Structure formats: structure tokens, C-alpha cells
Amino acid sequence: MTVFVVSYMLFSPVFGYYGDRVNRKMLITIGILFWSVFTLAGSFSKTYVQLMAARGLVGIGEASYATIAPTIIADLYPPEIRTVMLSVFYFAIPVGAALGFIVGSQVAAALGSWRWALRVSPPLGVLLALGLFFFTKDPPRGESDGHINAGVANENNGIFAMFKDVKKILKVRSFIWSTLGFTAVTFTSGAMAQWAPTYVYRMGAQEGSSISSATASLAFGAVTVVTGVLGTFYGSWLSKKYTPKTRKADGYICGVGLFVSCAFMGLAIPLLPFSTVAFWFLVVFGELALCLNWAPSAAITLYVNAPHMRASATSINILITHLFGDAMSPFLVGLVGAVIKGQVHFHKRFCLILTCACLLFVRFPTPCTKTTTYQRRTH
In whole angstroms, how far apart are CA 23 and each of 130, 147, 201, 235, 376? Predict the structure, then answer.
């Protein structure tokens, strides 16, 4: 998984650069086909190195549409409903995870090999790539925002042009705070996914519970999927409801979601030895609050940056949130656990509390309006 995440985040800026300059539909189509080919290739791996190489190449394909697709959605829908439409796109994360686990496990069991689990999605990917190529369009950049220069791609080319774009993007305060906030989300999600099931299992064993490690993983996975779907939907619903009242709604939703999640999961972890019911209740609502960030945070990234730099902004967001988020959080939390392993009864609890505490280091994302300085200048 780490190889996939590393290649995914490192190649996102490449697709961000080209996504602001060339036909986006073509880039995504090529990326999906690339993803499909190497997902299938992974099923024929004979060594661990071959499998890891295939997973790394799959991450490159995923970087294409994860970076560029949100910018196309932004150009298809106006700011008033953009967050809602982005939530439909981000439903793919929890729904895909659930379907991958269910379908993949069933196919592998039925056909007697894990390799067949990797052979289900590639044909679907090819069909989707063909459908995208023949039945969708690449809308003019900035069209849905009503810019007078709608459709103009980024005409500056070369490595210095890319760094110039990055410099402009990093000067947008709302983008910086939103990205830092979402980094806290991915950091917490990655660490909880890796260590929470282990914590539940080991604490249960100490208390004489019969829960197995597999059951703990399945339970936490189910909670993550369900809260991911509900949280993404509810975050977009809140945005649609409150944006007419305040153009800063998305920033407030993200900030409140982070702090509520911190409170709920921070309380849940030390409560597990005393009440399993209270632990799961707080974890469910903590994860739900955490997932409120998905669609509003993506929308902020898009509408605070100029249309001809949105793919680059999305790629920078992906790079930062994964590099300092879920790519390193499992390792860091495990490292802290190893350092204080002498306190066996408390070390997993302490590590997970540290994970939740990271949310406290990020204040509310700077409230931002959906009429940015760039938009006001070009109207």
C-alpha cells in the first residue's frame, strides 16, 4: 500500500502540470487505461518485487484522474452546487473500498486464488475509459465560474513555469490552511486504519474478550466505509444548506468537523477498557465528523485558485496531504509505540491519542469565500 501511495503522490504534480495545459479528457483516459493494465499485470506477479512494482505503476494511473477529474467537475458545475457534485466523485473512496473488499474476497474464495481478485476491475476500467473518451467533454476552464477568459489553458511551459504556478498557489492562505487541515484528516485516517484494530484486539485480550484480530479489522473497516459514505454526503449537504447563508460555509464545516472528531475519538480511546459500547459509539461519530471534510475541502482547493492552475493546486494538495498524512502516520505511530513499549498496557492507547491530538495543531481552515480575488478581478 505504501508503494502505491508514494507513486500516487509523487506523480500527482506531473499530471497537475499537464492538466492545466492539455486536453484533460485525454489524460484521464490514458491514466485509467494505464491503471487497468498494471492492475491486471499485478495478478501475474511471481515475486514480491514484481507485485510492488505493479502497485507503484497503478498509483501513477490513479494520480491522473484523482488530480484532474475534480477540475473537470469544477468546470461543469457552478460554485453553488459544486461541493455536492464533488461529493458524488468522492463517494468512490468508501464505496470502492467496500466493493473491493467484498467482491475481491468472494472472487478469490470462489476461484481459489488472490490473483483473480485483481482481475475483476481492469475490464471495468477499460469500459469506463472508453465511455469517458466517447461520451464526455473537456469543458472550457473556468466556464462555470463565468470568467471572461473561460477556456484559456495555462500557456506557460517548462519547469520554471511549474514552479511559478506553485509559488502563486502557496500564497493563497485559504488553500494552505485547508490543505493542512486535510493533512490532519489523512494522518488520522491512516494511523487509525493501521493501528485501531490492533488496539481493539489487544485491549480485548487483556480484558478477557474473545474478539479476534480479523473481527476487529472487519468491524473497523465496516465503520470506516459507512461513515465515509455518510460523512461525505452530509458534508456536501451542509455545504449546500449553509452556503446561501454564508460564503464561508465550507471552511466552517471542515474546521468544526476536525475538532468534533478530535473530541470524540480522543475520548473513545481511553474509554475502551471500561465500555466497548461507548468506544464504538464515539468512534463512529468521530469518523463521521472526520469525513465531513472530503467534499468541502476539495471544493475549497478548486474555488480559491484560478481555473488555469486548479489541476496544479489539486496535485499539491494530494502531495502534501499524503506525504505528511497517511503515508507516514502508520510508521510514526508505530515508532512511538516501539519507543515506549515498556508500558505495554498503555502504549497503543497513547499512540492513538497522539494521532487524534494532531488535529489540535491545525486551527479552523481560514474561512474563504467562493468569490475569490481572482474571480472578482475577471468579472
Answer: 16, 19, 49, 31, 27
